[in-house]
Each structure stands twice: as C-alpha cells, then as structure tokens.
Amino acid sequence: MAVAITAGLVLTFCCGVINAQPSVSLNLEVTNFRQPALCTRDVKLQHSVSRVLQFKSITECAHECKSDATCLSFNYHHDSDNETNSCEINTRSSDRRGNQLVYSSGYSFNEKLTSGGFGTSTCELRNSNFVYKKYEKEYTVRIESKNYPNYYISPNAANEAYILQNDRKPMKVVSPGLTGEPGTISFESGDSPGWFLRCRHDTAKLDLWDSTSTIDYSPSTFYEDATFWAREDYVYAGWTHFENVGKPGTFLSHGSYRVSCGTSWNTPNAAFQIIPFVPFVLVYKEVLIQSYNYQAYDLSVDGNSRIKIISGVTTKWNFISPGLTGLEGTFSIESVEHPNYYFRYRADSTFINLEDSVNPSYSPSTFAQDATFYIREHKWYSGWFAFQNAYNNLYLRHAGYVCWGSADDGSAGHHNDGSYRFVT
Predict the structure, then answer these.
(1) Which one of 29, 135, 198, 391 has the fewest CB atoms closer than 10 angstroms to its CB?
(2) CB atoms within 10 A of CB 24
(3) What pairing do the DSSP bridges indicate for beta strands 33-34 and 49-55?
(4) E-assigned strand segments in 212-312
C-alpha cells in the first residue's frame, strides 16, 4: 500500500514504501503518524523528549515509537552526515496551536494519530489577537469570587494569585485557551502581556507565569496548566467553575484568600463570575475640597481616620470614575498621600472615614458600595456640589467639623454643611 504525501501529511506505514520526506523510504510496518501542514521539515517538539536513540532511518524511529506506549510522537534528524541519525522519543504530542513546536534544522516532527494530540494546521502558530466571544467588545475582565463579593482574582507582587478586595488589575480572556482546544479559555495579565495564570500542580497553587521567558517549572505542561474549561452554571446559577485542562477534575478555588487548584468544587469558594473590566478615569486630580459653610476650611482627615473640615491644611484628593463598584456616573475619592485609601461611609457610626480599600477595618463586603458616590452639581447652591452615596442615598455633611452620612432634611443647615467645591 502506498500513500501520497501532501500538506497536512498523514504517514501510513503498512507493508509498503512511503516517503515521509522526498528522500526517505519507509518499508517497515508501523502505525499511522501525521505531520502538521507546512511543518514537515526543520521543526521539532521541545520539552517532551524521554529518550534519544540512533537509527539509520525514520522507519526505525517510527517503529520504536509504535512499540512504546509512552511515546506519543517523535523528532527525527534527517540531515546528519553520520551513519545513524538522532531519534527523539516524545512523551507528548502537539496541541492545536503547536505551542511547543520550534525551529530545528534537519528535524521532522511526527505524532501518532492515536496520541490524543489535536495537531496544528500551520507553522505560523502564534496569534495574539484573542477575543473572548462572550465580551467581544469588552474582553478585558475581572474575575469575582462568589463567596466574597468585590474580591477579584489578582496576582500579588510575588505573582501569587489571591482574591483581593476591589482590586483593579485587569485580566484578558484568551479564547480558545493556550492549547487551542475549542471551548477553553486562558487568563492573560492585562498589565503584563505574555503572563498567564497557571496551575502549578506540585504546590496546588495558581500563579502568574511569564510565557515569553524560560519556564523553570514543568515547561512541557505550561500551556495545559494555563488553560481552563469554563463550566458555567456548574453548581450555582450565574456563576462559573474553572476546570484545569492540564489536570481534569482540578478546579480553581480559594482558601484564606489564596487561589489554589484542587478537587474541591462543590463550594462557593470555587465559583466565580467573569465581568467586564471598566477602567477608572482620573477625572479630578490633586484637588482641595472647600466647605461652603466654612470657606477657610477644607476636607481632610484626623488622627482617627475620620473625614472632617480643617482650616489651614492642603489635603489633596483624586476623583476616579466610575466609582469602586463600577456604577456608571459615580466617583470614588482617593487620598493623594495614601493611595488606595478612600472616603467611605461607616454604617456602624454613620461617620465618613478614610480607609484602606485593600484591608478595610470594617465590613469588607460593603466597602465598594460605601465608597461610591454621585457628585450632585449645583445641588443647593450654584457653583457648589453635594456628595451623595450611590447606594444608601445619604449625603456627606459636616457637623461639629466631622463628616457623616445624612439624609436631606430640607434645612438650610444641612444644605450649608453639605455643599462643597473644588479648589486647585
């Protein structure tokens, strides 16, 4: 039996003479192999070689792979001047994107049709123009925990993945995922292109890894470890579980805020929601906020972290929009001197405090809502505005110099104490 060789080469070895390359004859009965189109020469699979043998022909190399149950593919060196050529036995096959296929002069890559590999269709393998189909216009997202509202998967300074409150680091959803398998996704850092969230199965932790440099842990499994099936409505309606492709049955979950990769799935800690990322815009930068009622006084903060009006200070504030909840048209007020510290209404005291958004001292689950306000321009006086919380509708007013949340009682005192303007 003989089979012609074309692009998308299938090598059928059975009792005949088949040319894997124009000058190579195959006379030995072996199983079927395939080569990627446009990848029939000068290419090999990296990070997967278990043994290197020497044979006189590709036929012998193919037969060796056939007889080894752990061999899913092989690299064969055709252009050696030696009597024998290198035959590299691989324990892995290619994926759809051919991520581990690299240029190597004189080599060919051949994988078993029964290897389970997807095969790659071209050597032009890299495509950075990924779009998550669910959010074609807003493919940059955040990944919110079900169990901890307003907590999002995010890497810390050591590239360890945690759920962090009100964290604003964007993630880019790559679909299909890095392996190219339909229906999968991968998560790329929005701040650091080429860095992906990856399950490290020796530690059972999720970390952020740089795919563009040398990978020092299990490089052969990087792409599978960084690819996930999104199991929507798996346990909870409207929420998604992420199952790792590299180790089926392993799901993302968190404990003590650290994101791990384990078999625990029937829990709110393993449920997440992909939501579009809305970037903050710095609308007002480094402004003073002057009181209408006491125009020699500006908003500042005292030693108890309470917002109050103080005379003779130059405390400056940044206004970002939308506010921390992402609600359109809202603002959050951040300290210039202390980044990530925001005005926040405290329901336990009704005061307005300046608090750390990363580690709030009170009710972390409501921090974003407590720190999100509307600016009501010309609310009571032309040229002056009022701050109204977007969720409880209380206004920021001062009494005894200290600011607190108050309903509008219609009085002149309330309007005077609750009116402000920016001073640059």
Answers:
(1) 29
(2) 14
(3) unpaired
(4) 228-232, 240-244, 251-255, 258-262, 272-276, 281-291, 297-301, 307-311
Note the pLDDT tens digit of each residue in 139-168. Answer: 688 899 999 988 899 998 899 999 987 776
Closest CA to 64 of 43, 73, 41, 220: 73
Q: How far apart are CA 255 and CA 163, in angstroms?
A: 9
Per-residue model confidence as pLDDT tens digits over 339-370:
999 999 999 999 999 999 888 889 888 999 99
Q: Tell me the C-alpha to C-alpha distance, in Å, between residue 28 and each of 10, 15, 31, 331.
A: 16, 6, 10, 73
| CA 21 vs CA 29, 53, 63: distances in Å | 17, 20, 17
Q: What distance in Å separates the CA atoms of residue 267 and residue 259, rounded to the nearest whole number?
A: 14
Question: Letter for the amino acid at 171?
Answer: M
Question: CA-to-CA distance for 296 and 298, rounded, in angstroms?
Answer: 7
- Sequence-ordered list of residues with C-beta below 8 angstroms from that of 237, at least 6 positions apart, any chain: none
Its pTM stands at: 0.57
Q: How far apart are alpha carbons 396 and 20 in whole angstroms? A: 78
Strands (E), 312-409: 317-321, 332-335, 341-345, 352-356, 373-377, 385-389, 395-399, 402-406
- Rg of the Cα atoms in the chain: 30
For the CA atoms of 138, 139, 141, 144, the dihedral, rounded to the nearest 10 degrees, stands at 100
Give the mean pLDDT of 41-58.
89
Q: Is 153 exposed, middle or buried (0-12, 13-18, 19+ CB in 10 A)?
A: buried
Residue 390: partners with Cβ closer than 8 Å, 6 or more residues away: 323, 325, 327, 330, 369, 372, 373, 374
Alpha-carbon span 122 to 104, nearest angstrom: 16
Which residue reads 């405290």 in tokens? 346
